[in-house]
Amino acid sequence: MELAEIIKPQLVVYDLESTTQQEVIDQMADLFVKQEIITDKAEFIDSVFKREKTGTTGIGAGIAIPHGQADTVTESAVAIAKLKEPLEWHALDEKPVKYVFLLAIPQKGSSEHLKLLSQLAETLMDDDVRQDLVKSTSANDIIKIFKK
Predict the structure, then answer these.
(1) Whole-angstrom Cα distance, residue 67 to residue 48?
(2) Distance separating alpha carbons of residues 137 and 139, to the nearest angstrom
(3) pLDDT for 71-104, tens place per residue?
(4) What is the distance between the alpha carbons of residues 89 and 138, in angstroms, rounded to a whole number?
(5) Is the pTM of this model over 0.90?
(6) Which of 13, 54, 58, 81 could form a disulfide with 64 if both were Cys (CB 3.0 to 4.6 A apart)?
């Protein structure tokens, strides 16, 4: 499965208003629930924070890639949020996060999980992609960045 295949307009939110990491993950998980990608929101969120405890998913440059793997995930997906205000995420570069890419992976999809995470991280390391994120003015702009 390729990253571009799982990026869907219904899973992108622009100017998400949240003041904590928990609120961001909670609101983004709601997107998965509405699309029937997860069947148990609480279990999925628990898997995300269990992973977060092993080390930050704030990779730097204002980006975080939290991810959860659970039996309640029906298909691999990524939700994308541009936050209205930058948020503390304990990122590697110690700077606040503005863009959150939340991955949902079925429990059985460990190799898929690593492949999608790798594709996403590699894409986000590209200076042009990060510049396009900064220039984006809508959810549609964000989607176009990953559909190139």
Answers:
(1) 5
(2) 7
(3) 999 998 999 999 999 999 999 999 999 999 999 9
(4) 23
(5) yes
(6) 58
Report the interhelical angle of 41-53 vs 21-34 (nearest 10°): 140
3-state SS class at 37: coil
> What letter represents residue 29's amino acid?
A
Residue 122 exposed, middle or buried by CB count within 10 Å (0-12, 13-18, 19+):
exposed
Q: Are the CB atoms for 39 and 70 separated by under 8 Å?
A: no
The count of other CB atoms within 10 Å of the CB of residue 64 is: 26
Pairing of strands 58-60, 63-64: antiparallel
3-state secondary structure (DSSP) of residue 65 = coil
Cα–Cα distance, 18 to 134 (Å, whole number): 19
d(CA 122, CA 20): 26
Q: How many residues are there in the chain?
A: 148
Q: Decide the pairing of beta strands 12-16 and 77-87.
A: parallel
DSSP state of 27: H
